[in-house]
């Protein structure tokens, strides 16, 4: 009898455990996002006590961020901030899991391609309150960039840093190939001519003039914008238009003329690697590429130029924003930190630390001074005509189609128009699912 | 579990004995197996049930499911990607299976009586298995590089113009399979080495007296008596082959950077792409169910076939 009883107890215990697990698993489904939050923000008093976690993905920026936080703590000694670094490759998987279980860090980094997914899923607390209270003024940041972090007329954050695209030039290679270094008012034709001339002259050294690649942000998005086309507009693909096709044809022509390595070559060795190993004359790259050049032997022969002009001048702008989680227990403190990190004072300090360009207009001088002879000002001037990185609610879904289909257009194995028709219809199907 | 509670074979009225046995032992046997059974139930069985359910739904990015019946499976089976990925998985599995015959030869060579430095060789063969897979993949990426890689450089000596291994459709999956094959040999050599030690030396002595050549001894003694180890290794290789993902991901890179990945996807990579890149988690669950069924089928078939050729004494 006694053993029977104990068995029953065990069974009951096991059942209880099972129930616990099931309820724990279901806990994630409950909707705990509140819509009104963020609207009623007031600046916290200096003695507010709170513990915040701050999720970021770039270890190289942690020192600069810690300095920002130390300064923040002089005003709010009671707010403890713990920085949690997750490498970029795992950051998004982790963030999605945290969002599903409403355990997001109080404040966390967000990029353009992922923003709408989280804003649409009501996982982010808007900055409506802080803006109303005067703690954040979106007008202080590049407009194309703040627009990345608004959805349906609601602003969820402002960028803390920014990057634009330009052309990095190795003047040594131009000298060797006896080609004149282009000037800032150059056009697509000038670029193509210089690229082919260098590739032809230095063929025996395995040196190329220009390089395409599969990274839209640094290559074909820019030419699509410069041709007057679009990637995604009003929930539809913009690829199947003459303008966008012209933007893609630019790269097909460059590869066909031998001005650039092939896509296969660029997959094995990416364009930035060709450039840093001294085998590429002109590299379309982001302002962040400065970090890879500073302090190297290449540095003294580097010059930055704006992108060559197509039908119009354009460049892609992007930047990371700090966002407050909708599930945060300390929204007031989190918004206070969010506001401080994008304040002029903090942005100035971030810029001087040197790893990124701060987004606050007028705090970027430190960036241009880091390589004074390279003309880095072009990356800041580009803000004027910059367009935001194309994104939608589920950006990754159609990004996959781009990588899958566009190589055929670049290699010339299929006419650009055929590829864009196919890409646009697949992309539209993915966009319709959003 | 059965070894604890079942009575010795041939004992009279089995059912009553079992009942009495259970009652006599009480809950103790259950307590002892609880950690294992509990773990398997919570971490394997329950997720399988959940995945099966999710595969019938459209799964929101942050949770929340909508029942869609067999829609995911319909889309999946109409989509060419599934068949391509199964094809790639089979190519990989077949190529990596060759690690077993290669390892049989290597292991018996290492077992040659009087071989000097056998331990050193064994360590050398085993090294790839203990090395960090990502680090290994990084090195192979460099070796396979089309313009600057060692492999094409060496091929150049023989007048062969090697392809862009990791960025040419068709070549990429073969390149990844070669890495897989290479990294498995060490483990197989160790397992087979242990199997070789089990073979009584007098068998070889007798064979030698009868005038059997070394080759004949290998064919008629070594291989048949190694079949249990060979069977074990083939089953493990096939299961690993069907689950291959990390190597492909690390050697070829992600779909953002390398267009060839789409042509070289294994079935688990297809699952990863759907689940974590394009956020179609319901579809990913359906793919996971297909993988489960395929692995189960392959394993059942192997166990059946095994009875025909494995030498058990």
Mean pLDDT of chain A: 89
In this structure, how is the largest beta sheet of chain B organized? 2 strands, antiparallel
Helix content of chain A: 40-55%
Could you please say which CATH topology of the largest domain in chain A applies here?
D-Maltodextrin-Binding Protein, domain 2
CATH architecture of the largest domain in chain B: Orthogonal Bundle
Helical segment tally of chain B? 16
Strand content of chain B: under 5%
Counting copies of identical and different chains, the oligomeric state is heterodimer
CATH superfamily of the largest domain in chain B: MetI-like
**CATH top level assignment of the largest domain in chain A:** Alpha Beta
Radius of gyration of chain B: 25 Å
Number of structural domains of chain A: 2
The gross shape of chain A turns out to be: globular
Distance between the termini of chain B: 25 Å
Number of β-strand runs of chain B: 2
Helix share, percent of chain B: over 70%
* Straight-line distance between termini of chain A: 61 Å
What's the tally of helices of chain A?
A: 19
